[in-house]
Amino acid sequence: MKSIEREEEFREQIEQEQLTIAVFKTTWCKDCHYIEPFMPEVEQHYAGRVTFVQLDRDDFPELCSELNILGIPSFIAFRKGQEVVRFVNKLRKSREEIEQFADRALQVAEALPN
User: Fold this and answer.
1) What is the DSSP secondary-structure string of 31-97?
2) pLDDT per residue over 42-97, tens digit each?
3) Cα–Cα distance between 25 and 39 in angstroms, integer?
4) Residue 68 and residue 71: Cα distance in Å, rounded?
5) Minimal CA–CA distance to 90: which of 69, 109, 63, 65?
6) Alpha carbon of 20 to those of 28, 86, 114: distances in Å?
7) CB atoms within 10 A of CB 43
8) What integer pLDDT is reported at residue 23 of this predicted model?
């Protein structure tokens, strides 16, 4: 998963035609580390349809405030600069929940006008 280092890089990425799912996490979050073993397989499953990027919430406090990121890990799907759908709460996320979120994000993005 590509790590975003600058806010400009994030804003450029979410402007893309293809769906981008931004994963907000931190180095100290146990639930964030919980998803690490299976995320490469999730990314591979959605290859060509979804671009996954990760941001360390602690490195982007203003952006996270703007996006109302409180719990981590948090997932927000974007297409053409617009938020499509989000999976944001303080609970641990399972692989199944993340895949359900990605499927829903794709469905919503496909229903949006071009």
Assistant:
1) HHHHHTTTHHHHHHHTTTTEEEEEEEGGG-HHHHHHTT--SSSEEEEEETTEEEEEE--SS---HHH
2) 999 999 999 999 999 999 999 999 999 888 999 999 999 999 999 987 778 999 99
3) 13
4) 9
5) 69
6) 24, 11, 16
7) 16
8) 97
Is the whole model's pTM more than 0.85, yes or no? Answer: yes
DSSP string, 29-41: -HHHHHHTTTHHH
What is the chain's length? 114
Give the three-state DSSP class for 7: helix
Confidence band for 103, pLDDT divided at 50, 70 and 90:
very high
Task: Write the pLDDT tens digit of every residue in 8-42.
Answer: 999 999 999 999 999 999 999 999 999 999 999 99
In this structure, the dihedral spanned by the alpha carbons of residues 71, 104, 5 and 92, taken in order and rounded to 10 degrees, is 30
CA distances from 84 to 5, 6, 102, 109 (A): 23, 22, 11, 6
Report the C-alpha gap between 12 and 103 in whole angstroms. 23
